[in-house]
Amino acid sequence: MNDQARTAVLNWKQAVDTAADTSVPAATPTQKPVVTRKLTPEEIAIARSVFGDALDTSQIQLTDSGVPFAGDNAVAFPNLVNFPPGTLSQPGNHFHGWLVHELTHIWQYQRGHTVPQLAVDAAGGDYDYGGPEGLVAAHDAGKRFGQFTFEEQGNILRHYWERTQRGEDVSAYKFYVDSVRYGTSDGVYPEPAPPPGRPV
Ligand SMILES: [Zn+2]
User: Fold this and answer.
1) Per-residue pLDDT reduced to its tens digit, 71-90
2) 154 alpha carbon to ligand 1 midpoint, in Å?
3) Of 44, 60, 80, 176, which is most buried, counting CB atoms within 10 Å of its CB?
């Protein structure tokens, strides 16, 4: 265990011990209150704007209790996203793009992928799908959304949503976002047309 990891464990243990000790105030200037909650209506709307009906948001919980060793990273479990301490108590929508990335992992779990699979991918650290140009080239080569790494998938959907918020061009993303929405992300090339009457 290196010094950084040892410090993280000590800090975590201290936080747990302090939380269990009712004789001291629950929060000190160095400790942030833990928030644990379901998605807000705004967050559900964000999820729907990316995933359509392909993500079941009804059981998803968010917390910012933090995960030892995760540091400033979030960790997504099936139906639980654990952000670093303080993330959810900060005002504003600063973490919504990050949330879309983490919701992508929940979508992956809902499609049958497992915690070890995602952990291996996260440890591999391949988050770079090449930006819009990379997506166009991938599409031209017949690459499926499901053929990107789990972390690349998270960033593709995150960047798609963030671009929509900034009013930027998302045409390079549309094929892949549609394949997520319509459940064809692992399907046969070319894409079948979306069912009639579904929002595009
Ligand atoms: Zn991720």
Assistant:
1) 899 999 999 999 999 999 99
2) 6
3) 176
Alpha helices in 21-170 (DSSP H): 41-51, 96-110, 115-124, 131-140, 150-166
Please answer whether residues 103 and 55 qualify as being in contact, where contact means their C-beta atoms are separated by less than 8 angstroms: yes
Cα(120) to centroid of ligand 1, in Å? 11
Domain-embedded: residue 62: yes
38 shares a domain with 9: no
Question: Does residue 82 share a domain with residue 99?
Answer: yes
Residue 62 clears pLDDT 80, i.e. is over it:
yes
What is the distance in A from the centroid of ligand 1 to the CA of 95?
Answer: 14
Does residue 105 share a domain with residue 20?
Answer: no
In the reported structure, the alpha carbon of residue 41 is separated from the centroid of ligand 1 by a whole-number distance in angstroms of: 23
Say how many domains are in the chain. 2
* Global confidence as pTM: 0.79
pLDDT above 70 (res 179): yes
For residue 15, the enclosing domain spans: 1-31
| CA 105 to ligand 1 center in whole angstroms | 7
